[in-house]
Amino acid sequence: MKTLLLTIIFISNLISVDFDYQLKPIKLSENSYYFYGKEEYFSKENGGDIVNCSFIITPNSVILIDTGSSLLYANQMKKQIEQITNKPIKHVIITHHHPDHFLGNNAFLQSDIFASLYTKEEIEKNGDLYITNLVNIIQGAMKDTKIKVPNQILTSQILDLDGYKLKILHLNGHTKSDIAIYDENTKILYASDLVFNKRTPTTPHANIEDWIKSLEELEKIPYSILVSGHGIASTSKEPIKETISYLNYVDKTLKQSAKQGLDIYEILNKPIPKEFQDFTMFKEEFERTVINLYPNYEKDIK
Ligand SMILES: [Zn+2]
Hints:
This protein is α/β, with parallel strands linked by helices. Helix content is 37%, strand content 20%. The radius of gyration is 21 Å and the shape is globular. The chain starts with a helix and ends with a helix.
């Protein structure tokens, strides 16, 4: 009996399969694609597939923008890219230090991984903590995910990768350092988490004033396609305008509420304004934002 049980355990371990993200790249232009992340919070069911990652096939190599939430995700993304091109993924750009954007780095050991100095330092400092948290939530799909710190620091405004030039915009507000990338060759703007398209923005490290300033910069860019960090890619300026409008709403609501002496529950009970009713995750994200930012507004009043 015991032998039979052990045999069953042994076999079931052998056939335990890795989480399948079922990734399919979406074409943006001739040589540019993105993987669309689900508009959900991290979960065991989605394996952390909640973010948009993009890639550009250049004449000599592939440039990848952000690496996702886990090693498995990144490896499956790599496989999908390899089905389209046999050029090597030589360059990876990490837009900021949130875990859904860089925890797949370890799949790209042969690549140059670029990030701002601040982002690199945050990954070094807090990377392991992010993994511990996500292992609790996502579990199996986080298998073998380890920190790989970026090995190239972004400082210039133009990045020349094997002769393919990208405009690097050093912005902030969603975090203390947010990189947006403008590809003048295709007129595609990769805005990362500075822009959320119909998906309520996350604000754990936000500075609303700086964020709005950064969005005003992005609005001036004559792009044809905008790839946001979350939500589907767009051809209009609307996602930028809507993100600004949401941030203004948060700022105004929290300022007024502090003046009126409201508590968090009273703020959360306010009806959702009409213009944000089609945003996904409004309730959860607005709640997190209020809990996170309201104490500062209350302090300012005192
Ligand atoms: Zn983020």
